[in-house]
């Protein structure tokens, strides 16, 4: 079955000839998404402090300056949105929705920092639809990647650029289990035969994954100031020293915060399921699945204990079992 856009359809059989939908979408490249946007708050110390506490960032440079990665936070409009938003983005989404690309997932973001943002800076910004990809087939479904570029200014000076990329796609069909469910829960994978995404292992975190293979959850410890840190980093974010060793976590912790994942569906997962920010007994925090209790029973402060879950023949992951599970 073909969509009303003819050769631009994304559902059904692979179309032949030109992708007419893509030609329509391509016309939106370069069009403004927001003009003369203004941040609802000036850069301020309370927001910087809350951010640093949530991220576990004890860098002494803050809050005299804002962490660079807060760049997008100052532009967020909340539920009421921002003035300056143009119709172009909504029109683009309407075209995609009309072609069956009704689902959306954020895929990645890129930031470039040009100057520090300091308390008192008034934030202004402009955004443009930078690019729309050709039609792509993904594990989630077939659709188009849309990249938006936002230029952020502080006190009238360009402070940084934020690129945000989404996939707007037509969801693929999900396999049902005989009991009427949609496959195993996130603890054991979703669709039969589907594999979890592979973690990115590099020279900075290879030691962590070596520890997981030995059923140890290793935390970095700075050998200069003894500060513990997680996730693994090449240097200490407290004193800057590049020298470190490791300590093994006891496995005890509590749920510091959490989300319940409902959408989008990914073949190796079966929502809804809980993902927690776990505060370990050692004081550092990490993100992982909360298992052993119903997703709607997970709560802040729930005691959890470490387990290692084998999800396929060559991937084992640290997860946390809630008390009572």
How would you summarize what this structure contains?
With 325 residues, this protein is mainly beta. The protein is built from four helices and 14 strands.
What would your notes on this structure say?
The protein is mainly beta and 325 residues long. It has 2 domains: 166 residues, Thiol Ester Dehydrase, Chain A, CATH 3.10.129.10; 117 residues, no CATH class. The termini are far apart. The N terminus is likely disordered.
Topology pattern, helix = H, strand = E: HEHHEEEEEHEEEEEEEE
Give the overall shape: globular
- Decide which structural class fits the backbone: mainly beta
Number of strands: 14
Distance separating the two termini: 46 Å
Identify the CATH architecture of the largest domain.
Answer: Roll
- Low-pLDDT regions: 1-8, 12-16, 174-188
CATH fold category name of the largest domain: Thiol Ester Dehydrase, Chain A
Major sheet size, sense and barrel closure: 6 strands, antiparallel
Average pLDDT, all residues: 87
Number of helices: 4
Strand content: 35-45%
Helix percent reads 10-25%
Specify Rg, calculated over alpha carbons: 23 Å
Count of the separate structural domains: 2
The CATH first-level class of the largest domain comes to: Alpha Beta
State the CATH superfamily name of the largest domain. Answer: Hotdog Thioesterase
């Amino acid at each position: 079955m073909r969509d009303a856009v003819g050769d631009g359809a994304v559902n059904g059989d692979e179309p032949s000839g030109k992708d007419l939908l893509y030609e329509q979408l391509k016309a939106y490249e370069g069009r403004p998404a927001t003009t003369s946007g203004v941040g609802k708050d000036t850069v301020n110390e309370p927001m910087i402090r809350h951010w640093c506490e949530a991220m576990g960032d004890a860098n002494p440079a803050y809050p005299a300056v804002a962490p660079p990665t807060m760049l997008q936070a100052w532009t967020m409009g909340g539920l009421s949105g921002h003035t300056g938003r143009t119709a172009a983005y909504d029109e683009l989404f309407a075209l995609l929705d009309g072609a069956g690309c009704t689902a959306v997932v954020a895929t990645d973001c890129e930031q470039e920092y040009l100057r520090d943002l300091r308390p008192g800076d008034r934030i202004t910004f402009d955004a443009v639809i930078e690019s729309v990809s050709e039609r792509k087939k993904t594990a989630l479904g077939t659709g188009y990647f849309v990249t938006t570029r936002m230029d952020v200014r502080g006190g009238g000076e360009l402070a940084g650029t934020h690129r945000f990329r989404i996939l707007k796609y037509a969801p693929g069909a999900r396999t049902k289990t005989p009991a009427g469910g949609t496959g195993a829960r996130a603890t054991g994978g979703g669709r039969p035969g589907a594999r979890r995404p592979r973690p990115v292992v590099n020279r900075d975190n290879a030691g962590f994954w070596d520890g997981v293979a030995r059923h140890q959850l290793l935390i970095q410890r700075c050998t200069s100031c003894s500060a513990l840190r997680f996730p693994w980093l090449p240097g200490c974010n407290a004193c800057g020293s590049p020298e470190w060793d490791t300590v093994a976590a006891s496995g005890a912790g509590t749920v510091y915060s959490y989300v319940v994942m409902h959408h989008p569906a990914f073949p190796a997962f079966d929502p809804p399921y809980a993902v927690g920010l776990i505060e370990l007994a050692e004081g550092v925090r990490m993100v992982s699945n909360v298992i052993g209790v119903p997703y709607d029973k997970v709560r802040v402060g729930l005691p959890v204990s470490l387990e290692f879950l084998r999800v396929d023949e060559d991937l084992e992951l640290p997860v946390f079992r809630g008390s009572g599970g």
